[in-house]
Specification:
heterodimer; A: 51 residues; alpha+beta; 2 helices; 2 strands; B: 460 residues; alpha/beta; 9-stranded mixed β-sheet; 17 helices; 38% helix
């Protein structure tokens, strides 16, 4: 016999505890093109971390 | 405050300091005050959405918990405890108001040093073709006459009006764009700039402005600072006015730029100093870097000068020599991401970025002042006009964009076989404007890659 799910059972999603992950904004460190930074193409040189 | 009273509170979002977008049920949130990128999982995203939802009245925590229990398989008590915990965390970070924080005043939120979230976000954006990053030039007009500028000026088309721009921004937000760079020309020549930035912030964009700062006065400083741009990047070529003003060909321009930087720093606006290195200012970048460091600004230099948009190679006469480029590349103050990788830098790129040259057309695009979409500011391939079509239509259906997206490293025959490939990041745009096709790199780029390999060996 076909099992009929209730509306509630089909709509409710699997629960995971609410969680927030964070990191420092590091767009330029990860991109080496200017679509995210300056208007000139090529590889932008940023100071090394901690220098 | 007891839990019973907490569930009766009505928290609300502190949107003024935040930029965010929901991707696949998760929220990417830029904290503009702290300079962090955050990822909220599905449940935290739902709580975040419900805090912002206004169905007549804003919701109490109790109502939010009821909705979460209705939508997820979770017992009520567990949901309430978890929701209170995540709301406390949000309050601690200053993301919501009218809810107690769990942080004492001197306690800092721990933030990781990795770039994992961003990597994941850009990978996801490429896979799902979401225009995460948009560069929008609002005007090509400029009050400076920089010697190396790639723009030709003199176009007689009418720029997009305020209303057109607002409409485009709405479409971009719907398409999933989060990072918006507004540039030009000189954007402050547009009297409606504050209005445009206000609209962009209302749509929860992380807004970055690129300017010379020469038209920024006290009144605009306050207006812009209140809108919390993610960053304002200033073009500064040298701290010597004779050198800087010589490049901009506008006497007094350095003084005005530095005044604007100072006024915005006083108002805690994140600043970046962007410099293009040329023969005339190659000697001053270290001093500029020290200045940036002193005022707490980010700093970036780039020596690659590109031809004009009409193909004219005249700006290239200002390019530094090969020897000078080596000097910059060898400067220990600067790094490229692969320098620390041992032994095979190419392995550092993961996922789809191992196959495609860059995110242009995949997760980012450029819009001209006349509403024309191209894959990147550096790639003048017209893909469709937003004066004729909706953004989504161009982004999804443009043949030009599809063709551009199809480019793989393996198509760049010279690069794919190159022994220095791991030390290079070929740029199709640079190839196009300098060599006339997307797949062949200019010889000097290859020489730089070769030099980087030598340098990398020396540094190990």
């Amino acid at each position: 016999m076909k099992r009929i799910k209730t509306a509630e059972a089909t709509e409710r999603k699997r629960y995971e505890k609410p969680r927030i992950r964070s990191e420092k904004e590091a767009r330029e460190l990860s991109f080496n093109c200017p679509t995210t930074s300056v208007k000139y193409c090529g590889i932008p040189f940023s100071p090394k971390k901690g220098s | 405050m007891g839990e019973d009273s907490l569930v009766g509170l009505v928290p609300y979002r502190n949107d003024a300091l935040l930029a965010y977008r929901v991707f696949d049920g998760q929220t990417a949130l830029v904290d503009l005050a702290q300079g962090t990128l955050n990822m909220l999982n599905t449940t935290a995203t739902r709580v975040w959405q419900l805090v912002g939802e206004r169905m007549g009245e804003r919701m109490t925590v109790r109502k939010i918990a009821e909705r979460i229990c209705r939508e997820f398989e979770v017992p009520s008590e567990e949901a309430i405890n978890d929701i209170l915990a995540v709301l406390r965390e949000m309050a601690s970070r200053g993301w919501i108001n009218n809810f107690p924080s769990n942080k004492s005043d001197d306690q800092e939120i721990a933030v990781g040093d990795s770039t994992e979230i961003f990597e994941q976000l850009r990978e996801q954006a490429v896979q799902k073709q979401i225009p995460l990053v948009v560069h929008f030039d609002l005007t090509y007009r400029c009050n400076l006459r920089c010697v190396h500028c790639y723009l030709i000026g003199g176009k007689k088309q009418s720029e997009c009006s305020s209303a057109e721009i607002k409409n485009i921004l709405e479409q971009l937000a719907k398409a999933g764009a989060l990072y918006l760079t507004l540039s030009g020309g000189e954007i402050f020549l547009r009297k409606d700039l504050p209005e445009i930035v206000r609209e962009a912030r209302k749509l929860h964009f992380a807004v970055r402005l690129l300017t010379s700062g020469t038209l920024i006065d006290d009144e605009i400083v306050d207006e812009i600072a209140k809108l919390h741009p993610e960053m304002i990047a200033f073009s500064v070529y040298d701290l010597n006015p004779l050198v800087h003003d010589g490049i901009t060909r506008k006497q007094g321009s350095l003084a005005k730029t530095l005044n604007a930087i100072s006024a915005l720093r006083e108002r805690n606006v994140p600043i970046k100093i962007s410099s293009v290195l040329m023969q005339s200012n190659i000697g001053g970048y270290r001093q500029l870097y020290s200045f940036a460091k002193k005022i707490g600004a980010q700093f970036q230099v780039d020596y690659r000068i590109t031809p004009k948009t009409d193909g004219s190679q005249t700006p290239l006469q200002y390019h530094i020599t090969e020897q000078e480029a080596k000097q910059v590349l060898s400067d220990p103050a600067f790094s490229r991401e692969y320098e620390t990788v041992d032994p095979d830098p190419v392995q550092e790129y993961t996922g789809v970025f191992n196959e495609i040259p860059c995110g242009a057309g995949h997760m980012s695009c450029y819009i001209s002042p006349y509403g024309m979409i191209t894959p990147c500011v550096q790639v003048p391939i017209e893909c469709g006009s937003l004066r004729e079509k909706r953004f989504f239509e161009v982004w999804s259906n443009s043949h030009e964009l599809k063709a551009f997206r199809a480019i793989r490293f393996s198509d760049m025959l010279k690069c794919a076989k190159c022994e220095f490939f791991a030390y290079c990041r070929p740029c199709p745009g640079l190839n196009l404007v300098e060599m006339g096709n997307l797949l062949t790199p200019p010889p000097r780029v290859c020489k730089e890659a070769k030099h980087m390999k030598t340098l990398n060996k020396k540094r190990r």
